[in-house]
C-alpha cells in the first residue's frame, strides 16, 4: 500500500470512529429514549393488513390528506385516545381485518371438548380457566398519526436531506462505477414513483434509481449509498442474509466516507439514519453493529475512492462529523426491491409498513 493509500485509509478509519461516537451520543439522548418508549407501544399487523394500510395511505397521500407517502404510527381509536390524541373529525381511517375473539371457559382445559363459550357478561364458574381464541375475522378501522391531533409525538432525531450542490464530477464518477458493474443509473421524478424511497437498488433488473426531486447533494449521497449496496450486497453474499439493519449501516457509512473525502458533510442525514437501522438489529447494541461493520465499510469506500477520478490528495482532511441532537424534518423514506431468487439490495429510510418508523 502506498503512502497516499495509507493516509486515505487512516482518514476513513477516523471517520468511522467519529460516526460511532456520534451515534452513541444520539442513542443515549433523552429524546431518543422517549421516542423508543413511545414506539414500543405499537406493533405491526399481519402482512395482509400491512398491504391494505399501505394502499389506503398512498391513496390518502394522493388526495393531499396526509403529508407523507409512508404511514408511521398506526393505532385504533381507543389507543390514540389513551395516548392523548384524538382522531380528526370525518377521518374514516384505514379498513383492516381484525380477529373476532370469543371468551371460552373450561374446568378441564386439557380436554378440548370441555370448552364452552361464555355469553356476553357471563362470569366463569369457580375454578374455570378462561381463554380468548379467535373465532373468525371482523372489519375494523385504524388511523395513522397524521390523521390525529393532540399531545405531541416524541420523535427521534431524523435524517435531514442534504441541500445544495454536489461536488463537481462526483455524480458522473459514481454513475460510471455503477455501469461498470452492469447497473444502469436512472433519475425518477419523486419518491412516490419509488414507493416512498429516496434510492432503490434492484439486482435483478440491474438498476439503481435515485429521486430526481432532491438537491444535487442529496442525489449524489443517495447514489453513493446505493453503490455501496451494489458492491457489498450482491445475491449470494453472506451479509445479504443478515439483518437488513446491518446492510443499511454498511451502505450509509460508505456514503458518508465517499462524501467526506469530497468535502461533502452528510452527517445530518447519516448519523440518525445509521442509528435507527443499527437500533433495529436484535440482540446487539447500535454501537456494536457499527463497530463490527467498520472493516468492510472502509475497504469498500477505498475501493470506490481509488476508482474515482474526482478524488485528489492534498485537499485537506475531510470534515468531521457534527453530532445530531436536534430533530429536523424527516426525509421521504425508502425501501428495497428484490426479484425472484435475488436478495434485497437496499434503500434509504423507513420500511413501508404500518409499524413505527423513523
UniProtKB/TrEMBL annotation:
GO terms for molecular function: single-stranded DNA binding. It comes from the Bacteria. Residues 322-343 have a biased composition (Low complexity). Residues 35-102 form the N-terminal domain. Residues 202-254 form the IrrE N-terminal-like domain. Residues 309-358 are annotated as: Disordered. This is Antirestriction protein ArdC. It comes from Jiangella alba. The lineage of its organism: Bacteria, Bacillati, Actinomycetota, Actinomycetes, Jiangellales.
Amino acid at each position: 500500500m502506498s503512502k497516499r493509500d495509507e493516509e486515505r485509509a487512516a482518514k476513513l478509519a477516523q471517520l468511522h470512529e467519529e460516526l460511532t461516537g456520534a451515534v452513541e451520543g444520539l442513542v443515549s439522548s433523552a429524546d431518543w429514549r422517549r421516542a423508543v418508549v413511545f414506539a414500543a407501544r405499537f406493533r405491526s399487523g399481519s402482512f395482509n393488513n400491512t398491504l391494505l394500510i399501505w394502499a389506503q395511505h398512498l391513496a390518502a397521500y394522493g388526495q393531499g390528506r396526509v403529508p407523507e407517502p409512508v404511514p408511521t404510527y398506526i393505532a385504533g381509536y381507543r389507543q390514540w385516545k389513551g395516548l392523548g390524541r384524538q382522531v380528526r373529525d370525518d377521518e374514516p381511517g384505514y379498513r383492516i381485518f381484525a380477529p373476532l375473539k370469543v371468551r371460552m371457559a373450561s374446568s378441564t382445559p386439557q380436554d378440548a371438548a370441555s370448552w364452552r363459550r361464555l355469553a356476553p357478561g357471563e362470569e366463569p364458574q369457580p375454578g374455570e380457566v378462561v381463554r380468548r381464541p379467535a373465532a373468525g375475522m371482523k372489519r375494523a378501522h385504524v388511523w395513522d398519526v397524521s390523521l390525529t391531533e393532540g399531545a405531541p409525538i416524541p420523535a427521534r432525531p431524523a435524517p435531514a436531506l442534504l441541500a445544495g450542490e454536489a461536488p463537481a464530477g462526483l455524480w458522473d464518477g459514481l454513475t460510471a462505477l455503477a455501469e461498470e458493474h452492469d447497473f444502469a443509473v436512472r433519475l425518477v421524478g419523486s419518491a412516490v414513483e419509488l414507493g416512498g424511497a429516496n434510492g432503490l437498488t434492484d439486482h435483478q433488473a440491474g438498476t439503481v434509481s435515485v429521486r430526481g426531486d432532491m438537491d444535487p447533494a442529496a442525489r449524489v449521497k443517495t447514489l453513493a449509498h446505493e453503490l455501496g449496496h451494489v458492491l457489498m450486497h450482491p445475491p449470494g453474499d453472506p451479509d445479504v442474509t443478515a439483518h437488513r439493519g446491518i446492510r443499511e449501516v454498511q451502505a450509509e457509512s460508505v456514503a458518508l466516507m465517499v462524501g467526506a473525502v469530497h468535502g461533502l458533510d452528510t452527517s445530518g442525514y447519516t448519523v440518525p439514519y445509521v442509528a435507527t437501522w443499527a437500533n433495529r438489529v436484535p440482540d446487539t447494541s447500535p454501537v456494536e453493529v457499527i463497530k463490527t461493520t467498520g472493516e468492510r465499510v472502509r475497504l469498500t469506500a477505498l475501493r470506490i475512492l481509488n476508482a474515482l477520478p474526482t478524488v485528489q490528495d492534498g485537499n485537506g482532511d475531510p470534515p468531521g462529523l457534527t453530532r445530531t441532537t436536534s430533530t429536523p424534518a424527516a426525509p421521504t423514506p425508502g425501501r428495497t426491491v428484490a426479484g425472484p431468487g435475488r436478495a434485497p439490495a437496499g434503500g434509504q429510510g423507513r420500511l413501508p409498513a404500518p409499524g413505527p418508523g423513523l
